[in-house]
Amino acid sequence: MSIPNTHIRAVVSDYLERFPKEADTAAPLVRALAEGHGPESPQGWGVEHVTTGAVVLDPCWRVLMVRDRDRGRWMLPGGPVVETDASLREAARARLAEVAGPVAGQVEEASGDLPLDLGPGPVRDSPASEGSEHRGPTFLYLYRATAAMIPAGSGTFGELAWRPHTDVPSARLAAKISQALATDRATAGV
Fold it and tell me: What is the dihedral of CA 157, 158, 163, 169, to 10 degrees?
């Protein structure tokens, strides 16, 4: 994997500066990075499988999700970091393109280099990884769809759809999305 531990460590440090109450959640990853374990080493949740995902909000404040063909549940688009990824943010964008296809070309980054959330998955792996799922550290980046497009048909793993933001995998993530939406509404004067 080409993303160095120093990059992951810097992103985690900046994330925890913004969300200090999440230090316990990130502790296994912080500990593994401090001990020098790389993202590919089998040292438990900390670094076993670093994944990235995308939280894509449309103008109607819905979240793009994919229904897993094998498990039938709705998930965020995403997957593992691969050798060609230069940063976690770029990995999230690349996994979005793999999972959602053309939809990925119609989004703008909204969280910069800092992820919206860091937690233990689940984000489905990319097509190259034979479809397995892992619960390693998942860096979720926020994107805004530039149009209220409805995904047609299916993506790589299953049906794509705009879902209520409360359908995301964790209450903490739903709260962060609600906060982002409140900021958007205040900025738009809604």
Answer: -40
